């Protein structure tokens, strides 16, 4: 019972802390005068991925690479099969041509690159640094392109989805003191760090009690738990008939997961990707990413039939993982 309380308590702290961190950081940035686009592409993007980031880094530092990298790969698989699937079942997901041409292609290339690297080299500091440089370069490119096309792309849609889900995240227009927003962000960060610690310890204990590998726990319970903000925001976007935002939220999250979280984890806690992830789950991630892109290409929409296929795929994937 204590193990499950640790796991569920960790998840709750991660979700609450993530919201507080993003809320405080966005409000502080807006009051300083930072562009809303830059806020959306950086603070909101990283902030909503903070649960995955802290969990993977703490797992890596604790000597549990199965949870660290299983969380990254499993979150991407869950984002596509579970979150995009549920969103499409609620409301067909409309795909903007620009998002398909640029962001979805980047998501696919990033997934393929991670799968290849996982097989051939350790996830060391050089690899992690390269991933982070690519993420910064991608964000810079999106900001430059947005200035001329008014299209912030998938990562911008990720911030729009969050603002739709929780209007309190949206930057206020009244400029006043910085103290309260900074305190809110700090409290959120503390909760995230504490939640990540509880989640990792609970996940390891559950894996041992069930006799399954820590990698399986990382790919399933931890991955879905840390992806809860993406699930909530995509579902709310779908309920509001904003299917394009739901698609962008998934794509933006997957790019951040590999380049941002994978890069930071490799930089802080270098380790090898467990062989079972490198040989099976990473190729599965590539396959489902390609499937999502193919679905999106047909008519620039992901309908309910495709959503049902994606969701059934996640159920089958979970069934294959558990003994």
From TrEMBL:
The record's annotation in Gene3D superfamilies points to: NCX, central ion-binding region, NCX, peripheral helical region
Chief subcellular site? membrane
Q: Which keywords, in A-to-Z order, does the entry hold?
A: Membrane, Transmembrane, Transmembrane helix
Q: Which GO terms describe its cellular component?
A: plasma membrane
Annotated compartments: Membrane
Q: Name one GO biological process term.
A: intracellular calcium ion homeostasis
* Domain of life of the source: Bacteria
Q: Name one Pfam family in it.
A: Na_Ca_ex
Which terms in the Gene Ontology molecular function aspect does this entry carry?
Answer: calcium channel activity; calcium, potassium:sodium antiporter activity
Q: Which residues cross the membrane?
A: 77-96, 103-120, 126-143, 178-204, 216-239, 246-270, 282-300, 307-322
Q: Where is the Sodium/calcium exchanger membrane region domain?
A: 4-143, 182-321
Topology term for the membrane = Multi-pass membrane protein
Name under which the protein is recorded: Inner membrane protein YrbG, predicted calcium/sodium:proton antiporter
Organism the protein comes from: Salipiger mucosus DSM 16094
